[in-house]
Amino acid sequence: MNIAAIFRKQGLSLREKVSLRPFTTFKVGGPADYYFEPQNFLELARGIEILKNENIPIFLRGAGSNLLVRDGGIRGAVISLDAFDSLAFEGEFVRAEAGVPIARLLATCAEKGLSGLEFLAGVPATVGGAVRMNAGAFGKEIGDFVQELNIYHHGQFYTIPRTSLKCGYRYLDLPEEAIIVAVTLRLYPVSPTEVKEKLLFFLSQRKNKQPLNMPSAGCIFKNPAAASAGALIDHAGLKGFRCGGAEISRKHANFIVNCAGARASHILALIELAKERVLSLFGIELEEEIRVVGEG
Ligand code: EPU
Question: Which of 24, 204, 222 lies closest to 119 in space, CA to CA?
Fold first, then answer.
């Protein structure tokens, strides 16, 4: 029996040969063999069990905003948590399921007068993705606000309290296969107007410095110790450098933008170029912040 039929038999839906281009903010990448969007935690657990039994590799997708899928696509199953989209408020605590878009979380927190996460304004992530990589900006990180994590790992759901969490720069200490399904965040009660003003401030800061109007994956590289990857690539003279439809942004050199019809191979060539130039000119090794997956 093929995998989709096994899914159907269990009352689950599995799509086959799904282009990942619309599911990444870069708007590039080949197809996934399988695409699974569980509607609830139970479906997630059942689907993963089938995929594991069939030895199908699993790739979790958040908003696809920190992701580069190679042109040959993914030999395995992509799991989307988009249907995990509930938000619940209690005092200064908000419990958000992993698929909630950061933009919706911020807008709802603003209405309720809950402050803290405004620095994430304009980050096109999901809650699960942002927490998984401890997304940050303007000297703040989402990990500082996490009170509790709900994860799925090795067939079980667990709750991890704040005291057991270890976060670093763009890093959360969780096993590779652990899946964040929901997060409880602790924020600060203030007036809704104050939160909205802060959101607008951070969004305008980001718009001034970053090419938000073009498809990209945000910053490509992590900032090396005591330096800015953007400044290093800029000083290497690479702003505006092109390969096919991809370009090292003229606005912020740590962004690669898809000008029109870029392929993953074009973006990867620019990534290699930036790494080589920065290493040879400044002796600094840049490390990707984005996740690169799939076949070439
Ligand atoms: N700079 C240049 N040329 C450039 C870009 C930057 O000279 O092309 C200089 C700036 O003038 C500034 C310094 O480099 O003096 C730092 O630039 P910026 O303030 O833009 O911050 P960044 O270090 O490049 C970091 C995060 C961003 C986050 C901003 C906002 C990383 C890798 N990047 O950028 O995060 O939005 O701060 O605070 O940590 C992301 O993670 O995807 C991301 C974009």
Answer: 204
